[in-house]
Design brief:
single chain; alpha/beta; D-Maltodextrin-Binding Protein, domain 2; seven-stranded mixed β-sheet; two-stranded antiparallel sheet; elongated; LysR_HTH_N; transcription cis-regulatory region binding
């Protein structure tokens, strides 16, 4: 049985709207046409794509997988269209999924170098889970994340290390750099902290390295979505935070790094995520070499 590609457009519309009727409105066809095309597509797969008993269409596991494949393919087509230059020649495309701060403040300056000027860059930001999903379903050629996940289809390789630092408002009274663990812990117990999305591992590593364990409770001054917002609140005197050291290049005189020479520097890591068996494309390999140069520098 031959599959008509227009059935996939109909499937995506039904998936996104949760209704054959709304999908029909979006596609300017009748609901019966949508229903027929979905039956044809399900007949080709030999299994249902939606559960029809609920008031809203619910995708089956097969429907979820098909949607991921179709949207990934559409993304590749759009990238290919964007990559064609004025002469009709396809330019190379590098699709990257990464954590936000590493992507903005480490990868972006590297990608701005002349070596990548002829490359179409697609840079998407997300949590580690979202980065893994993007690489796994083919929406990204390479990913960069802060943690390793168990997977039979993805490989993880350590590519970058960076220090974590405690930041505070300038002018705040802080312990001396030679303060012992007890004095540091007593001071921190009276401080409030500004946190941000996906900061738990960052805070955890710094506290475990500095105090030996993460406190059971931290006084919260604020919770932000982005690390930049957290730094702005620290600058405004709202509290302390823990951030990657490379973020210090973005702060003004209102924020200072608090260091204790009695404690070792806390380091965190970034891993390159790729599909098992995939060869590093030329542009991906160039980017990895540029990251390695930062490490050695």
């Amino acid at each position: 049985m031959r599959v008509q590609t227009k059935y996939l457009d109909t499937f995506v519309a039904a998936f996104e709207t949760g209704s054959f009727a709304r999908a029909a409105e979006a596609l300017h066809v009748t609901p019966s046409t949508v229903s027929y095309q979905m039956r044809q597509l399900e007949a080709w797969f030999g299994a249902p794509l939606f559960e029809r008993g609920a008031r809203r269409l619910l995708p089956t596991a097969l429907g979820e997988r098909l949607f991921a494949h179709v949207t990934g393919f559409i993304g590749e087509l759009n990238a290919l269209r964007q990559a064609v230059d004025e002469r009709g020649t396809a330019r190379p495309v590098l699709r990257i999924a990464t954590g936000s701060s590493f992507g903005r403040y480490v990868l972006t300056p590297l990608l701005a170098q002349p070596a990548f000027e002829d490359t179409v860059i697609e840079l998407r930001f997300g949590s580690d889970t979202e980065v893994v999903q993007a690489v796994g379903d083919g929406r990204a050629d390479v990913g960069f994340g802060y943690t390793v996940a168990a997977s039979n289809t993805l490989s993880f390789a350590l590519v970058y290390r960076y220090a974590l630092v405690l930041i505070a408002p300038a002018g705040l009274e802080v312990p001396g750099e030679r303060a012992d663990t007890a004095a540091i812990a007593q001071w921190l117990a009276h401080c409030a902290f500004v946190s941000y999305d996906d900061c738990e591992s960052t805070f955890g590593r710094w506290f475990e390295n500095t105090l030996g364990a993460m406190p059971q409770r931290l006084r919260s001054a604020a919770r932000c979505s982005e690390i930049e917002e957290a730094i702005a609140l620290v600058a405004a005197g709202r509290g302390l935070s823990v951030v990657p050291e490379y973020m210090l290049r973005t702060v003004g005189k209102e924020v200072v790094a608090v260091r204790f020479v009695t404690r070792p520097t806390t380091q965190d890591t970034v891993y390159r995520i790729a599909r098992v068996g995939a060869q590093d494309e030329v542009r991906s390999a160039m980017l990895l070499r540029a990251i390695a140069a930062l490490e050695s520098g």
